[in-house]
Fold this protein.
Amino acid sequence: MPRVVVFDEFGGPDVLRIVEEPVLEPAAGEVRVRIEAFAVNPLDLMMRSGALPAVVPLPHARLGVEGTGVVDALGPDTTGLEIGDPVILTAVPNASVRGSYAEYTTVPASRVVARPAGLGVREAAAVWVAYSTAYGALVEKARMRPGDHVLITAASGGVGRAAIQIADRIGAVPIAVTRHAAKEDELLAAGAAAVVATDHTDVVEAVRHHTGGTGADIVLDLVMGPGQQDLLNSARPGGTLVAAGFLDPRPTPFPTGSPLTIHSYRSFEHTLDADVVARMAAFLNAGVRDGALRPAVDTAFTLDDVVEAHHHLEKGLHAGKKIVVTV
Ligand SMILES: NC(=O)c1ccc[n+]([C@@H]2O[C@H](COP(=O)([O-])OP(=O)(O)OC[C@H]3O[C@@H](n4cnc5c(N)ncnc54)[C@H](OP(=O)(O)O)[C@@H]3O)[C@@H](O)[C@H]2O)c1
């Protein structure tokens, strides 16, 4: 029988176990996907550990919000897809029930798009969350335009690298923020126009320098915490800050009196919207085709090593690249 990763209690990576379960028959409008690979995201660690401020029904919770595979079965009235089509999952909103950590999952057909031609299975498994988040935050929310100076925090991470590539493709100017000067060359090679390393540079001064004194037009804050104040001070009055991540567990002071537009961003607000998903997929396809968008995979584990994959992400051994599990 097909294998599925589940957990019965919150805890460390060792709570994950593999069980065998019959496949679900897709209902009307649904599609069953035979998963070839899925990516491990920080959100999965939060769900598994109980840190997610949302209900995860236990026992027997599943995991996984992204992945790739081929269409295995279609429910009644499901149109636009054929059995055998290679697809990527664009969102699994009920991951604890239909998660992608499995040999098969069944989701609404509106939650899959064609796999971008030119991507290998591993890269395709890891492309959607990072690129749709960066695209949604920068293009759909902040209305990024050519020439905009865009300050990108956690730039060496999965979402950050995607944001650099998307800004470059649109003709904006990505300024990458890292905590380590040692990553400067790597980030310049990844497409950053300039790098601000917070271990040896003052963020506000550096951004003023790189923007000719004006300040950043857009800030993508994937970190939050007390450091957000420097980001607000690095933006030009009338600019935009999009808060999309929370890597710093310390509280974030409320940004009172800031002359910026501030958005909080959760990608589900877009990945459940068919019109936005169509725009994201079109942008992704075009960017993969011309080589501008290049998802970076760190390590590929097998399903038997899914616990190890979680340890790897938890210890930060992935160097900001995506961790993929092949099925
Ligand atoms: N809003 C959404 O819908 C959405 C979707 C996907 C992800 N996210 C969130 O976005 C964030 C980034 O995700 P990701 O997959 O890109 O993560 P990632 O690949 O694990 O990368 C994280 C990077 O952030 C930096 N970092 C880590 N801890 C930090 C800290 N305490 N303070 C400052 N920088 C830190 C590190 O870079 P340096 O060592 O170079 O500083 C690291 O390379 C996460 O919080 C994730 O949950 C949100």
About this structure: Residues 149 and 211 are 7 Å apart (CA to CA). The first strand starts at residue 3 and ends at 6.
